[in-house]
Amino acid sequence: MQKKLAALLLIVCFMIMPVLTGCALVEVDPQRDLDSVVAVVCGEQITKRMVMNEWNRQKITMNVNDAFEQSEEGETIIGTVLQNLLQDMVKRIIRREHARELGLYPLTDENYARVVELADQYYDDRLAQAEQALLDSFAETGGDATERDFSAEAEQSVKLTMENQFEFSREMDLRQAEDAVIVELLTEHYGRDVVVDEETLRSEYDSMLETQMEDFSEDTNGVISYLNSGDLIVYYPGEVVRVKHILIGFDEQTQAQIEDLRAAGKDEEADALMQSSAASIQDEADEALARALDGENFDNLIVEYGVDPGMMTQALRDNGYLICRDSIDYVEAFKQGSLALTQEGQISDLVLSDYGYHIIYAIDVYEEETIPFEDVRDQVEEKTLSLQRGVAYTRAMEAVYEETDVELYVRRLLRGNINTIGYDNALLVEEYRFAQE
Prior knowledge:
56% of the residues lie in helices and 10% in strands. It is of the alpha+beta class.
């Protein structure tokens, strides 16, 4: 039911860096091409193969498809992205070697446990994304969700991918996690002397409150962004709820007819079809509502009656949908029915929309509220210290990067293939292995 918004995430700063273009059609030996040394730093070589693995890993999150990679625009943008990835890999090595100089590397057993913990989180995130992709596919094709074990299918898919694509292997996860831990250690090292006084904390709180009151009052979607990211909220403007629901849906043909009428601007005809079609699902909807109001487990009723793919797993039901006054991703009837709920655990009456009848359950209701400084003082301190320690780390490392000799061979990186479409997966496996596991 939630509208799909597909967007190619391209970082603007990539576009302002100089691009040395290469032709993806140049005939070169793939093995030799991938073996090309594209940088030397701290006595270590970075090959084109290593950069291409980083690109393969990143392009999935950017929604890049083969057609874009092979387009003229794609080649230009990818050339710039590859240069940025190379710079990042150079800095990663410099960070590791600088940590070694400071006695922070090799990692202690405790810090290595943190590496494993992060790598496990990467796996869990990949698993959740795969499961969501399966759910999205189910939403498009239809079928009986009760006969599908989306979690098991996602796990099988992820494991197969990790076994056959080196860029998503456990080893690559460990490398990325190790760098994240090194950054944490260096930040702690350079920020160890940073302190903040009460006056500064109060000033930060006041500034945060002023900004949120202005921004959230203008657009309540800001609250949802903060809730999703886990950022500190000190002001709630109201008209924000988290809900789950039972959707007693129209058949696919009816939904498609209503959608077509809406698209053609024939809202009165769409409304009439919606109202007339409601009779076919009225008894089932009444029965589900009565059971919900009698106190039966709402999640069990979702599984028994519901057809919304967004509610098909326990994790999705637990998270629910965040709805606010300015939401545009939901049909209006469902949005208004959700916002009408005023307390946690409240269940709506039947709400009719273009998709069928909704029975909505309020997981959380975020009423208008200003959180006092005293209630969030420790969180403000943690956030302020984190930001200031981050600044100290960044300044220190910029000096280290500047002082380190680096040999870059960008032309080697951009000659031959600058995408991974034609490469055999076996060629992308690196000889370098992660040493600590």
